[in-house]
Amino acid sequence: GRLVAAYRKTHLCDVELEGRVTMKESGFTNPGTEILAPVSTPAGKLGLSICYDLRFPEISLALRRAGAEVLTYPSAFTVPTGSAHWEVLLRARAIESQCYVVAAAQSGKNHEGRASYGHSLVVDPWGAVVAQCREGPGLCYAEIDLDYLRRVRREMPVQGHRRPDLYGTV
């Protein structure tokens, strides 16, 4: 193995859910300064993102414009945010970008004051969950079918329907 890309998380999770979770990543890490071009792999062109980046569709759409076929989101979502938002955000990123989404997630206690939601999963470009792990350690497999991805994109060509001339003019 050799290193082919190094992505640094661009959005830091600074949140306070009163009485549930407080996190201030900016207190111990610096944000990345760029989105990387998708990386070619045997499974397709991978767009790299991390955890809290999932909440910003602009990254997934930029990666799609750059040729991504698979978006990755390794994560350590908190239990309150994961149980409420994890799957729906992953499915939304897959649908809007028409990419596969692969999301490996830490599960269980990270340390005394923090537990992660877990539930690693894979979503296809139509938004269907095609593989999933439940709570606890696990492994799941999914077929990345690039012919299916191309069919979804051909039948519903949302990338060509986008109106960048209108966005940001409100």
Walk me through the structure.
This is NIT1 amidase. Residues 1-146 form the CN hydrolase domain. InterPro entries: C-N_Hydrolase, C-N_Hydrolase_sf, UPF0012_CS. It holds the Pfam family CN_hydrolase. The protein is α+β, with helices and mostly antiparallel strands. It has a domain at 37-145: Carbon-nitrogen hydrolase (Nitrilase/N-carbamoyl-D-aminoacid amidohydrolase, 4-Layer Sandwich), CATH 3.60.110. 25% of the residues lie in helices and 23% in strands. The protein contains 4 helices and 10 strands. A hairpin with a 3-residue loop joins β1 and β2 (21-24). The longest helix is centred in the middle third of the chain and has 19 residues, at 79-97. The radius of gyration is 16 Å and the shape is globular.
Keywords:
170 residues, alpha+beta, Nitrilase/N-carbamoyl-D-aminoacid amidohydrolase, 6-stranded mixed beta sheet, two-stranded antiparallel ribbon, 4 helices, 25% helix, 23% strand, C-N_Hydrolase_sf, NIT1 amidase, UPF0012_CS, C-N_Hydrolase
